[in-house]
Amino acid sequence: ATIDSKSDSLDHLRRSFASRSIRGLVEDDLVEWSIELSKTRAKSTVGRIHRHVREFFSWCEKQRIIDDSPATGLSTSQEVGTKAFVDRTTIATIVQRCVDDGQLELA
Hints:
By secondary structure, the protein is mainly alpha-helical. 56% of the residues lie in helices and 0% in strands.
């Protein structure tokens, strides 16, 4: 089962980047891929796939196929999800509403 699971993970990676060289992949590519993956897979599944992909790229480093692994930033925990980015305007609006509602006092 483990071999099949690893094979499935790496096959998904291969299909996703079929037109790209392994040497040309960077961390941002894998982060974007991971975000898309997390939209259709359970967090535990994404964590398992990340673990397999990290192992693969680590092996590639050891074999000197690539210089640096683009997968080092992929989380292997079950708490994998998309990164939420909030701009300054949204933050200011939230803070102001909390102040207006008396829920927050600014020093």
